[in-house]
Amino acid sequence: MAIKRSDTKLIPASLRSVLDFLLKIEGLQLPPASQREMEYMLTSQASVMMESLTRHNPGHGRRTAHYCVVLGRTLGLPPDELHDLALAGLLHDIGLLMLDPEFLARRDHWDTDDYARAQSHPRAGAELLNRFAFLTSAAHVIAHHHERWDGCGYPFGLRGSFIPIGARMLAIADSFDAIQIPHEPNPDIRRHVALRILEVAAGSQFDPVLVRAFACVIRNDRADGNRRHGSDC
């Protein structure tokens, strides 16, 4: 789908290059498995382009996509749904690029009003991605990935199972990678603390069943890569 000229007036010039790149992906015509592979590879490149513009947490999109797929496989999702979930992980922060670059540059010092302003980004990102047929499912997930299990999230205040399951999964993957443990060089300890933070927030911010499944697979994967069948984690 072509980007309308009237729309580009509202899109920052820096973001247009990312959208133009996604437009090239839209034109691919390949067998399904090859199509998914190329879409993922090229969308990964678009994610890197986005992160170069925000200069915040490099690799976050790719890691978030990885954790989404890890959780999705645990739940037995089919390949097409895993693919859409991975694309959502790669592009979930694209709406932030609709915000002023100077505003983004001081994101570590946002006040309450700044956070309220930033809450527009899931919906803005979904609106941007809905232009592309191969990203419509991912856009739906992105629109709701800051909703909370207790209904106190944004942008729509959805609650519990009314939140699309893909968005609940993306919220967990996004937060797990974004949690920072200052002054702790040991990755195993950082991972353990991040999981504990997710578990504390289960039932309020996150779907408690999905948090349990995610924590279980992450802890099992850490144990020499050998899955312990029958473990209650």
Model description:
By secondary structure, the chain is mostly helical. Residues 1-6 and 224-233 have low confidence and may be disordered. The N and C termini lie far apart (46 Å). The protein is built from twelve helices and no strands. It has helices at 5-8, 13-26, 32-54, 60-74, 79-91, 101-105, 112-118, 121-129, 136-143, 165-178, 187-201, 208-222.
Set out the fold topology.
Elements: H1 5-8, H2 13-26, H3 32-54, H4 60-74, H5 79-91, H6 101-105, H7 112-118, H8 121-129, H9 136-143, H10 165-178, H11 187-201, H12 208-222
Keywords:
single chain, 233 residues, mainly alpha, 0% strand, globular, disordered N terminus, disordered C terminus
- Main structural class: mainly alpha
Strand content: under 5%
Radius of gyration: 18 Å
Shape: globular
Number of helices: 12
Unreliable stretches covering 5 or more consecutive residues: 1-6, 224-233
The description of the largest β-sheet is: none
